[in-house]
Amino acid sequence: MGYNLLKGKRGIIFGALDENSIAWKTAERVHEEGGKFVLTNAPIAMRMGQINELAEKTGSEIIPADATDLADLENLVEKAQEILGGKLDFVLHSIGMSINVRKGRAYTDQKYDWTQKGTDVSAMSFHKVMQTLYQKDAMNEWGSIVALTYMAAQRVFPDYNDMADNKAYLESIGRSFGYFFGKDKKVRVNTISQSPTPTTAGQGVKGFDGFIAYAEKMSPLGNATALDCANYTVTLFSDLTKRVTMQNLFNDGGFSNVGVSNEVMATFMGDD
Ligand SMILES: NC(=O)c1ccc[n+]([C@@H]2O[C@H](COP(=O)([O-])OP(=O)(O)OC[C@H]3O[C@@H](n4cnc5c(N)ncnc54)[C@H](O)[C@@H]3O)[C@@H](O)[C@H]2O)c1
């Protein structure tokens, strides 16, 4: 269902790998709401993913960019404005990767060049994206920038590994850059802290099935899906949230404020 919330708005969507990706669902919803955008992903993801299908479906062009590479980002931001015919109104950063997680390396046994790579891809890339947009003055006033994060930034989830630290860094960058983007350009910056979601990145976390089932039982409204996240992002890109900025916003069915639920208690009471 569309409400025309993004009619006339232009943007960039990072991170659509396949139809499970949160960025994929967001691109579909932004398209339904009348927004126009350029899709981008790492050059390697072009070969693995099905991004062409999404581009066709949404009438979008694709510009490959490694989000850790400033030259790629500069090219992306320039070309996107050319293609879309003006400055940008919204940007979604939906990027995460940890080699330690991927290779099953424990938090207490990090290989630090992997840790550094993960930090660059998952957190510093958010700064690089925003610095490129800021220096090129590529955002329209009252534009909106969103990145995706997870609650392991605040609380310990042992198998989330070094991604927890990357998310804490990402959220801090959102606040810090949000100050300057707000003051200097009237642009808002927020992070959405999303429930566990069955995507390529999500399922890479050890014990993901247990993790998502536990969160489902803890959350009064159940886990937020990728589509729920897409819908929330649409509201943040719309003019209905003009003065929401520098926030970490939970889209998690209530999980973050629950100590324990009756369902989880029941598993310890022998009456499940
Ligand atoms: N899935 C979950 O459980 C969950 C929960 C909370 C937050 N998130 C966050 O949501 C975001 C999107 O992840 P997803 O779950 O949709 O998984 P996904 O695997 O579909 O998306 C991750 C994307 O990051 C891209 N990427 C990796 N390295 C890159 C680079 N160097 N340059 C540009 N792009 C690069 C990948 O190609 C991929 O498209 C991530 O920030 C993730 O941490 C996911």
From TrEMBL:
Chain sites annotated for binding NAD(+): G15, S21, I22, I95, K167
Keyword Cell division attributed: no
Keywords: Fatty acid biosynthesis, Fatty acid metabolism, Lipid biosynthesis, Lipid metabolism, NAD, Oxidoreductase
Any Pfam family matching the protein: adh_short_C2
GO MF term (any one): enoyl-[acyl-carrier-protein] reductase (NADH) activity
One of the GO biological process terms: fatty acid biosynthetic process
Catalytic residues in the record: Y150 (proton acceptor), Y160 (proton acceptor)
Record-annotated membrane-spanning stretches: none
EC number: 1.3.1.9
Catalytic activity as recorded in UniProt: a 2,3-saturated acyl-[ACP] + NAD(+) = a (2E)-enoyl-[ACP] + NADH + H(+)
InterPro entries: Enoyl-ACP_Rdtase_NADH (IPR014358), NAD(P)-bd_dom_sf (IPR036291), SDR_fam (IPR002347)
Metabolic or biological pathway, per its Swiss-Prot or TrEMBL entry: Lipid metabolism; fatty acid biosynthesis
Family: Belongs to the short-chain dehydrogenases/reductases (SDR) family. FabI subfamily.
Entry protein name: Enoyl-[acyl-carrier-protein] reductase [NADH]
Species the sequence originates in: Dokdonia sinensis
